[in-house]
Write a structure and sequence with these properties.
Layout (H helix, E strand, L loop, with lengths): L18 H13 L10 H9 L7 E7 L4 E7 L2 E8 L3 H12 L3 H11 L11 H27 L6 E5 L8 H9 L3 E3 L13 H7 L4 H7 L4
Parallel strand pairs: 1-4, 4-5
Antiparallel strand pairs: 1-2, 2-3
Helix pairs in contact: 2-8, 3-4, 3-5
C-alpha cells in the first residue's frame, strides 16, 4: 500500500466455550434423538432477550445464576466484554444458612424477604449484612468491569440490567444504582413477546430466570 492509502481498523469479536462442555451438550441431543441446529454462548442470548439487536446504548448485564454470575458489556446490541465470577444465588442461600444455623429452604426464604443492605457502612446486622458481605466480590467485579471498559473505550456504560434467579433480591437494584450512579433495572425478556394478559404476573416473576432460554428462542427472529 502507498503512504496515501488509509487502513481501516476492524474489530473482530472472538467467543469460545470449553470443548468438554460443548461435547456434553452434543451428546445430550444425540441421546435424545434431537437434531442440534446450533450452539450459542449465554451472553448473546441475554443481549438478544434483554436489550435487543437494535439497541444503541452501552449496557452491562449482570446475570446472577445459581452458582456463578456472568457480567456482559453489550455495545450496540453486541456483547463485547464478558466475565464470570463464582458467586450465585446458592452462595447467598448457603451463607445465610450458615450464619443463622437454619436449613437451606428457610435460608432461601430469608434471602427473598430481607434482601441486601442498602449501604455497606450502615451497621446493618443479620441477614442483610450477610447478603451484602457475600455479594461484595461480585459488586467489586462489576466496578472492575466498569473501569476496564471505560479505560479502553470512549463510550460509557449507561445502564445495568439484572437477570437470573437472584435478580429479585430485595434492594439489590437500588443498591447497585446508588453504588455506581447508574440506572439499574431488572431485565424483562418478555418485552418483545406477545402473551396472554392473564399470565403476566407469573411471567414477570419468572422472566429473569428464563432470559437465556428466551434469547435462544429468539435467535432466528
Amino acid at each position: 500500500k502507498t503512504g496515501s492509502e488509509k487502513t481501516a481498523n476492524v474489530k473482530i469479536l472472538v467467543t469460545a466455550a470449553p470443548k468438554n462442555l460443548v461435547s456434553r451438550y452434543v451428546d445430550i441431543f444425540k441421546s435424545a434423538s434431537i437434531k442440534l441446529l446450533s450452539l450459542e454462548t449465554e451472553a448473546f442470548a441475554l443481549a438478544r432477550s434483554l436489550i435487543g439487536p437494535s439497541a444503541t446504548k452501552t449496557v452491562m448485564i449482570v446475570d446472577i445464576g445459581s452458582t456463578t454470575s456472568d457480567l456482559s458489556v453489550v455495545q450496540d446490541g453486541v456483547p463485547i466484554l464478558n466475565r464470570t465470577i463464582n458467586i450465585g444465588g446458592q452462595t447467598l442461600t448457603k451463607a445465610i444458612a450458615d450464619s443463622m444455623n437454619v436449613n437451606l429452604e428457610r435460608a432461601e426464604q430469608f434471602k427473598r424477604d430481607f434482601g441486601i443492605s442498602l449501604s455497606m457502612d450502615n451497621g446493618a446486622k443479620g441477614i442483610p449484612h450477610t447478603i451484602s458481605t457475600t455479594l461484595a466480590p461480585l459488586l467489586n467485579e462489576v466496578k472492575y468491569v466498569f473501569d476496564l471498559y471505560q479505560n479502553q473505550n470512549l463510550a460509557t456504560i449507561e445502564k445495568i440490567v439484572l437477570s437470573g434467579g437472584s435478580a429479585f433480591v430485595p434492594n439489590l437494584d437500588e443498591y447497585m444504582s446508588r453504588q455506581y450512579n447508574k440506572p439499574t433495572v431488572i431485565g424483562n425478556p418478555w418485552d418483545a413477546i406477545m402473551y396472554p394478559k392473564d399470565l403476566e404476573v407469573v411471567l414477570q416473576e419468572n422472566g429473569p430466570r428464563l432470559s437465556v432460554a428466551i434469547g435462544l428462542a429468539l435467535r432466528e427472529f
